[in-house]
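Q: Please design a sequence for this.
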């Protein structure tokens, strides 16, 4: 019987040779690193992971300034550590020198200079406004004077002559036009304007026929008017102001200048009398008409007069309705007219009589104007009166 072999034991088995270990870090390093260690203990250098991920947080803390200073080493700069230097942010400004307080004298000087500047500005603005108003007033006056020269209904036989074609006669003198109190003579649309020129003639022109010369404004031809009435050395004439005289003018009272002359048929002329007058294109509430327009309310006291023409504005208190008008011209013939918004709403005619008619009106204005033309048929010594009763409510 054959003998059976026992399998080899583990120890008898052939163990393949152990593969060589990979070279160490020291073997691979081109420049050997020496480590301070005891001869008996050789420590391997730390691995990459150990360097990148230190196990102890304390190992990553930079040395303190104190420890670094005590060791005599220079601490790393902020740029070496990769952080922003906070020094500029921590620097403090040097204290500024306190501002000096102005003396009281300097404060007063500065205040006076400031006041002078402000005063100069205010005065400059006021002067500019005044000049603008003055320019506008001159433009209004010129426009009104031109409207009168072009629009007046001059008496029959009137002709124009240039002032340069006349020779001034110093002995032909005009006397000031008589005024009714301190009232400025007024010209109103549709109302006759009785005019009178008084003169003396003792020089070379004595005995010559003398006529009235009239011009509104400082320049332009003179309107020579044959006198309709000569009483001694007085010329009487009347101008008719057209109803539409204010159509192209502002609704104010325009100051105008009327130049009056005495003119002879021989071409002699006196120096001019310059009369300040007013062309009424505004109503009683217009500021420029204050003192120029005679205004009063209805139911006021009776208005009476004689040989002087009269024009009164009456406030009726409403813009439509009817009112009772009491009037009396007695025996001497006079004429009374009532105007409303440029139209005649009552005309007594040239008559010596009386009446109490009801007069109707309607529009936008609350005012009427009553004109009295005394001695409309000639003569003198008349008397008249009227009363405007308020409209029935």
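A: Design:
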């Amino acid at each position: 019987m054959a003998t059976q072999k026992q399998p080899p034991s583990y120890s008898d088995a052939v163990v393949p040779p152990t593969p060589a270990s990979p070279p160490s870090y020291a073997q691979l390093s081109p420049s050997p690193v020496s480590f301070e260690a005891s001869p008996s203990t050789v420590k391997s250098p730390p691995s990459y992971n150990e360097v990148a991920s230190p196990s102890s947080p304390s190992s990553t803390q930079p040395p303190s300034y104190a420890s670094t200073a005590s060791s005599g080493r220079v601490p790393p700069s902020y740029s070496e550590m990769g952080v922003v230097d906070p020094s500029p942010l921590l620097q403090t400004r040097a204290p500024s020198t306190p501002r000096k307080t102005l003396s009281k004298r300097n404060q007063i000087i500065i205040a006076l200079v400031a006041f002078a500047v402000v005063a100069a500005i205010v005065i400059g603005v006021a002067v500019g406004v005044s000049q603008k108003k003055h320019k506008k007033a001159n433009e209004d006056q010129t426009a009104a004077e031109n409207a009168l020269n072009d629009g007046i209904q001059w008496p029959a036989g009137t002709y124009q002559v240039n002032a340069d074609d006349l020779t001034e006669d110093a002995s032909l003198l005009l006397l000031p036009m008589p005024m009714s109190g301190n009232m400025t003579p007024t010209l109103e649309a549709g109302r006759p304007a009785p005019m009178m020129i008084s003169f003396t003639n003792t020089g070379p022109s004595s005995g010559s026929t003398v006529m009235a010369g009239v011009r509104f404004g400082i320049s332009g031809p003179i309107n020579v008017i044959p006198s309709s009435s000569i009483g001694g050395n007085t010329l009487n004439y009347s101008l008719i102001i057209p109803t539409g005289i204010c159509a192209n003018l502002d609704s104010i009272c325009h100051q105008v200048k009327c130049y009056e002359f005495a003119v002879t048929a021989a071409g002699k002329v006196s120096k001019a009398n310059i009369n300040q007058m007013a062309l009424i294109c505004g109503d009683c509430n217009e500021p420029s008409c204050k003192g120029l327009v005679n205004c009063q309310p209805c139911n006021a006291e009776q208005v009476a007069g004689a040989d002087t023409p009269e024009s009164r504005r009456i406030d009726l208190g409403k813009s439509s309705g009817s009112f009772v008008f009491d009037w009396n011209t007695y025996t001497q013939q006079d004429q009374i007219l009532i105007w409303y918004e440029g139209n005649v709403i009552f005309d007594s005619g040239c008559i010596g009589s009386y009446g109490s008619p009801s007069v109707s009106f309607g529009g936008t204005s609350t005012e009427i104007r009553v004109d009295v033309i005394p001695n409309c048929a000639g003569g003198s010594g008349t008397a008249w009166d009227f009363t405007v009763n308020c409209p029935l409510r």
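Q: Thanks. Anything notable?
A: The longest strand covers residues 253-264. The chain has two domains: 106-282, 294-393.
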